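Could you show me some protein's one-letter sequence and the numbers that encode its backbone in two labelled lines?

___
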Amino acid sequence: MGNILPMIGKGGLALAAMGIISIFLYFFDYNIRLLAWIDVWGDTVGWIIRFALIIVGGSLYFFLGTPEEDES
């Protein structure tokens, strides 16, 4: 179980990166193919989803991304 938590943290980093890249590409009227569905419900919901990806992904990386060191 200890080896899976850093992997989930790295997945969170990927989520946050996709959210940031999606924000950048939005201004060029382009989007990541995996995230093409987020603007279906409108621009406001798309922005909420982008920021949620960054917040959730960043928190996963922050809390689970680095393995805890043993103090012994």
Observations:
- The chain has a mean pLDDT of 85.
